[in-house]
Amino acid sequence: MLGLTRKDFTLLLVVVxxxxxxxxxxxxxxxxxxxxxxxxxxxxxxxQRFAIFGILVIGFNILFGLTGYLSFGHAAFLGxxxxxxxxxxKLLSYNIVPAILLSVIVAGLxxxxxxxxxxxxxxxxxxxxxxxxxQMSYALAYSxxxxxxxxxTGLQVYASDPQILAGAGAPSAPHFFGxxxxxxxxxxxxxxxxxxxxxYYLCALxxxxxxxxxxxxxxxxxxMMLRAIKSNQTRMNYTGLNTKPYMLxxxxxxxxxxxxxxxxxxxxxxxxxAERMYWTASGEIVVMAILGGVGTLIGPIVGSGVIKYLxxxxxxxxxxxxxxxxxxxxxPIENGLIWLVHPFVGEGWHLTLGLLFMVVVIFLPGxxxxxxxxxxxxxxxxxxxxxxxxxxxxxxKSAE
Amino acid sequence: xxxxxFSRRGVLKTGAVTxxxxxxxxxxxxxxxxxxxxxxxxxxxxxxxxxPQTGPYAEExxxxxxxxxxxxxxxxxxxxxxxxxxxxxxxxxxxxxLGKKVGFVTxxxxxxxxxxxxxxxxxxxxxxxxxxxxxxxxxxxxAVQGLCQDAGxxxxxxxxxxxxxxxxxxxxxxxxxxxxxxxSAAALAPVLEKAYGTDRKAYHLTADYTWGWTQQxxxxxxxxxxxxxxxxxxxxxxxxxxFSSYIAPVLNSGADILVLNHYGGDMVxxxxxxxxxxxxxxMVNGKQFEIIVPLYSELMAKxxxxxxxxxxxxxxxxxxxxxxGTKAFVKSFGEKYGFPPSNAAHTCYVQTLLxxxxxxxxxxxxxxxxxxxxxxxxxxxxxxxQTLYRxxxxxxxxxxxxxxxxxSTSGNANMVGYDTLKIVEETLRAQxxxxxxxxxxxGGALGDCNPGA
Lengths: 400, 453
Known about the structure:
Oligomer: heterodimer
CATH architecture of the largest domain in chain B: 3-Layer(aba) Sandwich
Strand content of chain A: 5-15%
CATH architecture of the domain at 6-277 in chain A: Orthogonal Bundle
Structural class of chain B: alpha/beta
Order of helices and strands of chain A: HHHHHHHEEEEEHHHEHHHHHHH
Number of helices of chain B: 13
C-alpha cells in the first residue's frame, strides 16, 4: 500500500491512529481528578508541540540516523523557519500557507549554505562547524540583526504591520483560508473532556506526511546510499562514487524538515525569538533522537514525545501537588515520600531526564524503541529473538 | 526498491479519509460561550505563577514563587494577612475572591520565551487559569503578555524593567507594577548630580539586547540633561562571563564614570572585574572614578559581595522601608521563610493582591471588567506610597528608591545582598513620571481588552 511494505504500512497506520486520536489517548484521567490534573497531556498547545518536534526530529534522523553525521546546530533551521513564517504574517496576512511554504524554502536555502561548508569535514569537525554556524545565527538574531528579528524580545506581529493580503475583517490570528488555528471543540464525556483543535490537526497531518516521506526515504536507493556512507564513506569514495551530493541532499532535506517545524511553531503561536536557535535547543534535538532511537523510523517521535512530556507535565508537579497525592498518609511517611520524590519532579525534571538518558545510552543503545522491541520479544515468548534495533546497534559496534 | 502501486481505489480511499479528517474539527466546532476564557465555575479560582525555577534567574523566580504562595495564603485567610491589613482598599477579607477559594499552579519559564509561553498555554488550556503572574526578564514578559492578550486572560507582569513592556509592546490585558528603565534613570540623575557634580564623562558598557539598550538610552538622556558627557557606549554580548577586554579600554578613555547597563550574572561579573582593575581607586580628570549600576537587585548585590560598596543604583522597593505596608509584608514573609523578601518577591505579591482586589471591586472575573477596575486606579499601603495604575499604558507610577552599596551592617553572611544595600533617597513619583507618548515608549497601542471565548 502506498509503495510501502506490509510492515511499514502497519507502522504508518499506527502513527496515523496515534496522532489522530492523541487528544483522547493523552487524556486518560478525568479532568478534575488529581491524576488528571497532574498527568493529562491532551491539551492543544502540548499536542502541537508533540507533533512539531516529532517532525523536527524525524528530519534530524534522516541526517544523523542514515548518514551518521551528527549536526549540532539543527535548531538554526528551526529558528530561521520561524522567522520566515512570522515575517510572512507581518507582510502578507495571517494565512499560514505562504508562511509555512516560505519557512521550508528559506530553511532549505540556509541549509545549502551551511551544508556546503560544513560537509567538507566529517566526524567531530562537522559537528563543531554546524554548532558554530548555529551559535553565529543565534548571536546575529539576538543582537546584530535586531531590526530583522527584534532581538531578545522576539519577533511578533503588530497591528501596524502592513499585512497587504489581509482583507478587512480577516482573522487576527493564524488561519488556514479563514479557518482559525485556535478554533477548537470540546467533547465532554462524564468527567472527561477532550479538546480537538484545528491547529493540532494541521500539525498532525504534517507529521503523518513527514513520517510517510521519511519511510520512503529510508527504503529508497537514496536511503541505501546514505546508509552506505554511514558504514564506510572512504570505501565509497574509493569505488569512484562521489558521496558529497548525497550528503548535501540529506542535509538539505533534514534542514527543510526543521524549517517546516519552525514554520508550524510560528503558525500555532505567531511569535519567535532567538533562543529557539540557542545551542541547548540543538542539543535537545540530539537528545531526543538518541533517546527515541537513532536510525529507527518511529524513534524520533517517541524521543521528542518523552522529552516534551517531561518538560511540560513532570516539571509542573510541585510540592503542593505532592502533598495532595500523599496527604492521606501519616505525616512522617508523607514527608519521607515527598523528600524521596521531590528531587525528580518539578524543577528537578532535568534530573529525571538525565537519569533516563543515561539508562538508555548504557543499556539500550537503540533507544526507547529498542526497549519496546525487547519488551515485545519478552511477551512473544520467542526467546533469543534479535530485534532490528539490536542488530543495528551490533552493526554500529562492529563498524567502530 | 520503491514500487509504485497507487490504485485509483486506493487514492480515492485515502483522499476521502484525509478529507473527512480535515472536516471533522470544523464540523465539531461548537464552543460553549461563557463570556470569557476560563470563567471559574466551581468554588475555586486558579492563578498561574509562571516564574524561572531553573536557569540564570532561578533564585529570583523562586523568591517570587514564595511571595505568590504567601499572597494566596493571605487571600484565603491563612496567616496574618500581610499587606491586606495596610492596603487602602478593604474588599478582601480572607475568604478568597468573590467567595471562591484561590488555588494556583506553577510553571518554569527557564527564562526562555518559548518555554514560558508553553507553560502559560498549559496553565490556560489545561489548568483553567484566569490570571498569569510572573516573569523575570523583559523578553519573557513581553512574550507571555502577548499570549495572554490573545488567549483572553489577564497578565500581571512580575520582574520586567524594559521600557517596551508598557511602551512599544503594551497590551490591554497586561499590567506592570514594577518600575522601568526610564524611571531608574530619572530617579538616579538628581542623586548622581548631588554626589558627583555636573561635569562628568560617562562610559557605558551595555548588555547587547533590548533591555540593555533602553536602559542605556534612558541613562544617557537623564545624565546628559544635567550636563554629563557620554564618551562612549560599548555593547557587550549577553552572558559574556569575562568582561576584562571591555573594561581595560575604560582606563584610557578619559572617562571618570562607568555605567554598567548589565543585569544578573553579567552585572556581577562586570562589576567585580571593574573593581579588580582598580577603577574605583583611580583618579581621572582630578576626580574620583565612580561606577554606577542603574538596576540593582538583592540577588546581584549578593553575588557582587563587597564590590558594590559606594556604587549607586535603583530599586523598585526594598525591605528596609519603614512604612506600614512594608513592615507587614516583611514580617509575614520573614515568619514563613526566615529571611527578608526581595524586590522581585514584593512586586509579584503586590500584583497578585491588586488583581484579586480588582476582581472584588469589579464583581466579576471577566478580564474586561478587571481591566476597567485597574485602569487609573489609585491605591496606597503596598510599600511604595501613593501609587497610580495609569490607564493609558497600564504602568504603575510610584516613588523609586535610589540605593547605595555599603558594607554589611550585621556582618551576617546570610544577609549579604539584603543589608549591603542602603536606601539613599526615595525619589518622588512626580520626578519619574513621563507622558504616555514619550519617545522612549512610543509606537505601541494597548488595543482592546480581550475576554477570549
